[in-house]
Amino acid sequence: MTETVLITGSAGAIGRHLRRTLRRDGRHLVLVDIAEQAGLEAGEDAEIVTASFTDAGAIGEACDGVDAVIHLGGLSTAGYDFADYLEVNIEGTRQVFEAARQRGVGRVVFASSHHAVGFHPNTPGSVVPDYLFARPDSFYGVSKVAGEALASLYHDRYGLDVICVRIGSYREVPTDQRTLWNWLSPGDCTRLFEATLRATAPGFRVVWGVSANTRRIASLDEARLIGYEPVDDAEDYVDAVSPEPEPWDRIGGLYSESTIDDPRGSSTAT
Predict the structure, then answer these.
(1) Is the pLDDT of residue 269 over 50?
(2) Which of 80, 85, 140, 228 is labelled catalytic?
């Protein structure tokens, strides 16, 4: 029996990575992005849908026959007004959940972000829990908080299984002091999203998307409960990372508003 998984934002960095690494016998991928995507490779069991997830008709049609949605798409952290985030990241995410509900999709995996809780203080020696309440550090962070709220609503009201992944810093290798604790490696990214698809009846969950970093301060309890076992460690790259904090790390919280681009990268409604 074929499993069909829809990925929004499939032209972004994480989307392109998962397009390659989530390939399995018996799995069909539906790759949705408004941006141009590479053509299908020989033997690739997938289809490319050029559309915005903010288009209710298009995302509804794309959800036909889908078993799970991985919602990565959205505007990144830099260069947008609140009205843009409201239209794309908030209303667009509602369209994704509504399409999933109407078309009988059983599971949505929502790519949330560390920016949803970025102004919590970074207390040495403490562990940042999985369900840490919202304290966003930017309008982008606000949009991710709203997405988590929609996820909770669509689980409680309509019974969807929803897993919100508070992604840390997805990069090939750690690049600054902050990523020494919140790095998500490409390999662990695949392991995590595979776990979100395989978990049995997860209900509503919030999990941290980080690797097994020596300096990790975020809980992995919920992520491990859905079957995620990270193996990579940012400490392996510590000698290549500058000891100086980046400017956006000087406020003292877990995160602060920054102008670096989100590595997912695909501005799916522009």
Answers:
(1) no
(2) 140
Per-residue pLDDT tens for 100-143? Answer: 999 999 999 999 999 999 999 877 778 999 999 999 999 999 99
Q: Locate the DSSP E strands across 179-257.
A: 183-184, 204-209
Spacing of C-alpha 251 from chain mean position: 25
pTM above 0.90, yes or no: yes
Helices in the chain by DSSP H: which ranges? 13-21, 56-62, 82-85, 92-102, 139-158, 179-182, 186-198, 221-225
Cβ atoms within 10 Å of 5's Cβ, excluding its own: 23
229: its two tokens: 């076992």
Residue 153 Rama label (left phi>0; alpha psi -120 to 50; beta): alpha
Residue 27 exposed, middle or buried by CB count within 10 Å (0-12, 13-18, 19+): middle
- What is the second-level CATH architecture of the domain 3-249? 3-Layer(aba) Sandwich (3.40)
- What is the average pLDDT value for the chain, to the nearest integer? 91
Calpha distance 89→139 (Å, rounded): 10
Catalytic (active site) residue 140 = yes
Say if CB 6 and CB 68 are below 8 A apart.
yes
**Bridge partners (DSSP) listed for residue 4:** 28
Q: Domain-by-domain residue ranges, the chain?
A: 3-249
Where does residue 81 fall: left (phi above 0), alpha (psi -120 to 50 degrees), or beta otherwise? beta
- Which residue in the block uniquely carries the two structure tokens 């990214």? 189
